[in-house]
Amino acid sequence: MATQAQAGLTRPVTRRSFLAAAALAPMLWRSSAADDAADLPDRLTGVAAADAGVVREAVVDFMTRHEVPGLSLALAKDGELKVQGTFGFADRKEQQPVRPDHRFRIASISKPITSVAIFKLIEEDRLSLNDRVFADARLLANYLDGPLAGDEENRQRLETITIAHLLEHTCGGWGNRQRDPMFVREALDLDHAGLIRWVLANRPLDHAPGEEYSYSNFGYCLLGRVIEAVTGMSYEGYVQQTLLKPAGVRAIVVGDRELDKRLPDEVRYYGDGDDPYGRAMDVRRMDSHGGWVASASELVRFGVHVDGNGPPADLLEEATLKAMTTPSSANDGYARGWAVNRANNWWHVGSFNGAASILVRTHHGYNWAVLVNTRRRDGDFIRDLDRLPWQVLRAIRTWPSDDLFRRV
After folding, report:
1. Cα–Cα distance for residue pair 331/214, rounded to 1 Å
2. Nearest one of 343, 350, 355, 365 to 114, comparing CA atoms
3. From residue 4, how far is each of 360, 368, 406 by CA, in Å?
4. What is the pTM assigned to this prediction?
5. What average pLDDT does this structure show over 204-225?
6. Which residues face 253 on adjacent strands?
7. In the sheet that 104-105 helps form, which strands lie side by side, from edge to edge?
8. I want to staple 86 with a disulfide (CB 3.0 to 4.6 A). Which of 98, 261, 333, 367 is the partner?
9. Mapping DSSP to helix (H, G, I), strand (E, B) and coil, where does residue 8 land?
10. Rg for the chain (alpha carbons), in Å?
11. For 156-211, where are the E strands, in sequence order?
12. What sections of 93-191 are H helices per DSSP?
């Protein structure tokens, strides 16, 4: 994070590559910028009046420059929720302001949730990082019984893919740089089992597992299926029962694609050209790599239970957290479900058509999340989304004593 959170997707992570690499779609809201933004509804809790103006100015500037309809942020210090802010509209047509309980699609922030679930199974001795996903009869070995692309070498490569390779995006291929398997048109209507069989039959690995970093949504789809194979539960059911409920998290669920199936407290998403409710946006099928829907405060509540920074109690042991956040040899900026840096900050960015998000844990005791109901192809968008909470942090000179988690 140097001084701010980095984020990386398809190449070895640098600050520039991870913040710029999310494929961002152009957008909406073509009304007059500064004047309209000045009238955005907002609700800011936990910030002294003397600091609130600076906070609001930073948020409105970001929303104006990037034409963001609605934004929600939450910031915790030393395990306690200190700041909540909502700005703009959950639904522009209905002129419905964003509320603190509004939920947003969090896209790839689903990957840290999946990683924590995998490491919980490792703590329980039900998995290990070295388990071979397609060679272990308990896991996904049955999928090698069907048609396979490539030659015998490809089969051998498949059999060497481990849990660690999937967590680290080093499984040997299936990256999102070209024809992301999760969004290939020919396979959009397949369920998880059908998709896995289609990929194995049509997409041989590019190289041996463990050699190169290639950000893979499909790899995290496989991890969701591993969780189901080991537990006998649905992926969402296991996460809810084992992680979210013990952490007191009540408002994080896997979403749905259709507009008419959105939750009563879920925002509306806005795309430009591509429909955020279209056929390609089957967020339920994306579950373990991009399917969760959350409010900013509940996402931070999850974050403070896996941050290793003291109270509240973490869901994972200290040694497990270290294993989860140690970078791979293929990419010193990405660990196992988290982007990391030398300052010992952990984070992840989420971005797909209609939504963008960032979740950050810092080494000095802060956790925050920022969620928006759009995304931009503008290369500065994710960079500025990352910078925004740092601006908010610098603006706060007096911290409130109240813990807002006691209210939400």
Report:
1. 10
2. 350
3. 9, 12, 28
4. 0.91
5. 97
6. 293
7. 104-105, 292-294, 253-254
8. 98
9. coil
10. 20
11. none
12. 110-123, 152-160, 163-168
Residues 6+ apart with CB under 8 A from 20: 379, 382, 383
User: Do residues 62 and 384 make contact, with C-beta atoms less than 8 angstroms apart?
Assistant: yes
Residues 6+ apart with CB under 8 A from 83: 44, 45, 46, 47, 73, 74, 75, 392, 396, 404
CA separation for the pair 334, 347 (Å, rounded)? 10
Cα end-to-end distance, the chain, whole Å: 29
Type of residue numbered 333: G
Quick one: pLDDT at residue 38? 54
- Of 320, 302, 178, nearest to 250 by C-alpha is 302
Residues in CB range of 221: below 8 A, 6 or more apart: 182, 192, 195, 196, 286, 287, 288, 289
Q: What is the DSSP letter of 38?
A: H
Q: Using the predicted structure, report yes or no on whether residue 18 has a pLDDT greater than 60.
A: no
Please write the tens of the pLDDT for every residue from 233-266. Answer: 999 999 999 999 999 999 999 999 999 999 989 9
Token pair for residue 100?
């603190």
Q: Exposure string (b/e) for 378-402, b if CB count within 10 Å is 16 or more?
A: beebbbbbbbbbbbbbebbeeeeee
389's tokens = 């909470």
Give the DSSP H/E element, type plus range, for residue 226. helix 217-231
Lowest-pLDDT choice from 17-21, 169-173, 182-186, 257-261: 17-21
Domain ranges of the chain: 15-110+236-406, 114-231
**Four-CA torsion 57, 341, 355, 47, nearest 10 degrees:** -30
Could you please state the CATH topology (level 3) that the domain comprising 15-110+236-406 is classified under: Beta-lactamase (3.40.710)
284 phi and psi angles, rounded to 5 deg: -65, -40
Query: How many angstroms separate the CA atoms of 29 and 223, rounded?
Result: 37
Backbone angles phi, psi at 221, to 5 degrees: -60, -45
What is the number of alpha carbons within 13 Å of residue 154 lying toward its C-beta?
15
As to burial, measured by CB atoms within 10 angstroms (0-12 exposed, 13-18 middle, 19+ buried), residue 135 is: middle
Q: Which of 10-24, 157-171, 173-187, 374-388 has the lowest mean pLDDT?
A: 10-24
Residues belonging to the chain: 408
Widest CA span in the chain:
67
310 contacts 86 by C-beta, under 8 angstroms: no
